[in-house]
Amino acid sequence: MFFYLYTLFSVLIYLVSLPLFLLLSFKTKYRYSIPARFFLWKNPPLKKGGIWFHSCSFGEAKAIKPLVDALPAEALRMTTTTQTGKEVIEGYTDQSRYLPFEPLLWAWMRPQKALVVMEAEFWYLLFALAKRGGAKTLLINARMSDRSFPKYLRFKWFYQKIFSHIDEVYAQTALDKERLEMLGATSVKVTGNIKLADLPAPTKNLHKPEGLTLCAASTHEGEEEMIFEAFNAFKEEHPDAKLILVPRHPERFDKVAALLASFASAKGYGWHRYSEDESLQDDIVLVDRLGELVNLYAISDIVILGGSFVPVGGHNTAEAAQFGCRIISGPHYFNQREIFDAIEGIVIAEVYDLPRRLQQFGQIKPARLKYRSDLSPLIDRLTEISFKGA
Asked: At what angle do helices 156-163 and 124-132 cross, to 10 degrees?
């Protein structure tokens, strides 16, 4: 009964929201994803009989690469919900699509050997319909942060319904396992964080500029201005220092460029956009291109981790730690606790304390990875399903 009532409810939500979806489709950020997800425009069904991975965004899509590499190319099926995520999964297989909105899955979905969903994409019909089609359903890299767990717990009855359609769960930590089981998950194994298993290597060798190089990585709304002021104070003591600024979301590139232009003009700094000039010789370089962070980490002395000075939850800093960068994070890293626990040397600073921490960079130890995750149990399971069927 719940299955059909939920389907009816999702159809009603879809019909009521159609005008909004249509309007959003004209925004650059959603130009491809909205028409594909909500109107199935240029979004045909996946070929049946494969291993279907669903990863929400750019970072998650990159993180599943070790699993993708371990499976036959002809078995791969991929979906995502964001444009940046789509750009990544298209590099894995031509069987790559945007995930349709839930009620559209009834007509769109084809039977697969397995559905493998990354982290916290709890779409009821996605799991229920895949299970009905004969797929093994797996939730991988599963986590439940301190901040989000109480919210999930309030709707425990609903998540019990979802977990009744999930066969196997692979959690990041023992605490995540305990919390997921409280929500109704069964067959939970702890495998660690996938993002600690196979860190990406640089794709090009960049020339490191003279002086200290600071990389402000994956910044969000409200963080750039704070970083500019901290860099300005640092620059007084270290005139040759350079700042490489990497906003998290492409749709913010132009807005951040305007902020940077105003700041640089007021302070007399030179700056340019990386898409127009790949040199790193100006005082500040705005990196307005995806896929460059690992290359930049490799030449950075200090990394300021974005998404942690505002309540976003932080981002994967293991990619920087592998190069021994000195890393400064804000206090809001609640989505990355397991990764932070695996790294030695990260300094946590409040917004007001960032200038002082930068000035004392010599006292910060180079970051070091203490361990990496073992994905062999998950790879073995997916390989078994791939070759033997569900």
From this structure: 30
| H/E segment holding residue 176 | helix 174-182
DSSP annotation of 206: P
pTM of the model: 0.83
pLDDT of residue 390: 46
Instruction: Give the pLDDT of residue 52.
Output: 98
Residues 6+ apart with CB under 8 A from 41: 35
Whether the CB-CB separation of 25 and 83 falls below 8 Å is answered with no
Domains of the chain from N-terminus onward:
2-197+374-388 (3.40.50.11720), 213-369 (3.40.50.2000)
- Phi, psi dihedrals of residue 189, rounded to the nearest 5°: -120, 150
Buried/exposed 349-380: b ≥16 CB within 10 Å, e otherwise: bebeebbebbeebeebeebebeebbebeebbe
Q: How does strand 326-329 pair with strand 76-80?
A: unpaired
Residue 378 to residues 66, 190, 199, 372, Cα–Cα distance (Å): 11, 10, 17, 15
Tokens 């930068």 correspond to 358
How confident is the model at residue 304, as a pLDDT?
Answer: 98
| Strand pairing class (368-369; 343-344) | antiparallel
Which positions of the chain have pLDDT values less than 50?
Answer: 390
Residue written as token pair 């993180």: 63
Q: What is the pLDDT of residues 109-129, one digit of tens each?
A: 999 999 999 998 999 999 999
